[in-house]
Amino acid sequence: MAPSILHQPVSAPCSERGWNFGPGPALLPDSVLTQARDALWCFEDSGMGIAEISHRSKRFLELVERLQIGLRSLLAIPSTHDVLLIPGGATPHFSLIPINLALARGTRHATYAITGHWSRQAHREARTLIDSTVAIDIYTESGTRSNVRMIPELPLWSIDSSTAFLYYTDNESIDGIEFPAPPAITMPPLVSDMTANLFSRPVPIDRFDLIYAGVQKNLGITGLSIVIIRKDHLHKEIPGWPPILCYGSWAESQSMYNTPPTLNWYFALLMVEWMEAQGGLEALAARNDRKSSLLYQTIDQSGGFYQNAVSPTCRSRMNVPFTLTSQSLTEQFLKEASHSGLLQLEGHRTVGGCRASIYNAMPEAGVQNLCEFMNEFRHHAG
Ligand SMILES: Cc1ncc(COP(=O)(O)O)c(C=O)c1O
């Protein structure tokens, strides 16, 4: 019988919460949830809930200012870059980026590094707009991934420096592949999808022309995205495209081109303040290293009972996919894990297996509990 390893929130509206390893929507810190719960009823002393306050009110604009200042300070964003908050998650940027960074400049050529599901998806959508080429591709011609997954060394990449931008995904959340550091190139302009690892470590923002992320991993709740963009790319008009698709329109309106998802912005502020209270990105990075090392150690020392196919040179610190030796064992593992309060460990529907997503909000105790469970399961089911 597996031990009960449910954790108790600081103040619990329901009696029990498990350890949530979901990839996003993902676990939120207890203190953020309780603050949001109270603010939904009454925000500060406004007499209204946070989701009921006008986005044009003085009170909400103060919140926006705190959010902007907090984001800029946490990520050390230089004055050359603007921070936009755009509704709709990460996927709209698969198209917005080619429109704003290539077509707006009268070019139809950009380059994509394909290291997993999300970069492949971004490339597919870009191809409906521009003539993109591929710098590297971890998929074979038949569309399957090779057995050992790794990112080829930079000299093997095929990059034409006259291309509008080089696009890559810093952390592939389905494949569990993460760049240990941004590709060391100076040209062309670098663009990165950091949906699944922004805020997990410091980022040299000035090396990028654009970084974007859906916020549902480390910055709150699903449905919003953050875009950090060099100001040169802020066009308010792009011939043939409506203003709502121009990053410049969002910058000019302080991200209020239409009514913003105010609750998501509030959650983002709570997450920024929580990250500051944790000691900022250096401290979170050290904690994330410890958590992922422990989990990979548990997998690697299981004698093949658990396996992770990614090269240790580019294993994700945020999303750890692993397989067991058979489908029936995988199903048994997931069932027993769930009964023990270890939730949402299923791998993505396109690849199967298991995956533990361990974003900033997952405490070390949660990962230790998972590793203890994995060791125990191996002994009784192996
Ligand atoms: C790296 C990455 N890019 C893009 C997406 C798509 O995000 P969204 O569903 O917000 O459009 C995800 C979703 O998990 C992701 O992990």
Brief synopsis:
By secondary structure, the chain is of the alpha/beta class.
Structure notes:
- This protein is an alpha/beta fold.
- It has two domains: 50-276, Aspartate Aminotransferase, domain 2; 280-381, Alpha-Beta Complex (Aspartate Aminotransferase, domain 1).
- 33% of the residues lie in helices and 14% in strands.
- The chain contains nine helices and 13 strands.
- The chain has helices at 30-41, 58-75, 92-102, 117-126, 247-252, 262-277, 280-300, 327-339, 364-381, and strands at residues 19-20, 81-87, 111-114, 133-137, 166-169, 171-172, 177-178, 190-193, 210-214, 224-230, 319-322, 342-343, 354-357.
- The strands form four sheets. It has a seven-stranded mixed β-sheet, with helices on both faces. It has a two-stranded parallel ribbon with strand order 1-12. A two-stranded antiparallel ribbon has the order 6-7.
- The protein is globular, with a radius of gyration of 21 Å.
- The model is unreliable at 9-14 (pLDDT under 50).
- Residues 23-24, 89-91, 118, 169, 173, 193, 195-196, 214 line the site of pyridoxal-5'-phosphate.
Strand percent estimate? 5-15%
General form: globular
Instruction: Provide the spatial order of strands within the biggest beta sheet.
Output: 2-10-9-8-5-3-4
What helical percentage do the residues reach? 25-40%
Summing up helix and strand content along with how strands pair, one would put the structural category as: alpha/beta
